[in-house]
Amino acid sequence: MADSIENQQSIDETPISPSRPYPERKNSLEKHLHNRPSPDELRQKNILPNSSAAPALQAHQKELDLHMRADSLNEKIAHRPSPDELIQKNILPDSHAAPGLQAHQKELEKHMRADSLNEKIAHRPSPDELIKEGVLKEDPRSPDEKYNEAIEDEYAKREGGA
Q1: In whole angstroms, what is the distance from residue 61 CA to residue 66 CA?
Q2: Considering the entire predicted model, what is its pTM?
Q3: CA-CA distance, 68 to 130, in Å (whole number)?
């Protein structure tokens, strides 16, 4: 008998997780129920289905909607333009380089174009040579007069005059 009393005293019967007293738990549940979102809020967040169909038909309606979306996407994929058409419309780059190198290729082409333009600008003929060849006509006005006239024309355009 002493053994059974000793065993009862050594058994720890406290709960693993401390629970709150009953009134506190009841109040907590009431708070959560009171603060829960309304069905309209849940529909806006797409948690509840936004349907006026009967609950028994909602699963079938959802499945039908999924099939309709899949059919629509398959139709769009079937009618999408080929890569050759996209290259002709300058949507895709006309490049046979690996995709990882296409950005470097584009950058290189840009620098090559800039170098070509700089080379052409450096070797362009002077205005005197163009006048001698008859490409330009000689203007008797001084550069300052031309500049002032251009400024006046620009102001007139902005004011809506000319």
Answers
A1: 9
A2: 0.39
A3: 69
